[in-house]
Amino acid sequence: MDKLHEMWENFQLNEEEGAAIDIEEEGIPKVLRKGDRSLISKIWSDRQIGKNIVETTMAKVWRLSKPAIFTKMGKNIFIITFATHADKNRVMSGRPRFFDGQMFVMKAFDGYTPLNKMSFDDVVLWVQFHNLPLFGMSRECGERLGSSLGVVEEVEVDGDDVGWSRFLRVKILLNLKKPLARGWTITLQGLKTWIPIQYEKLLRFCLQCGRIVHEEKGCTVPILMETSNRQFGSWLRAEPGGQRFRGSSQTWNSSLTKSSPKEKGKATMGW
Question: Which N-terminal residues, if any, form the signal peptide (predicted)?
Answer without folding.
Answer: none
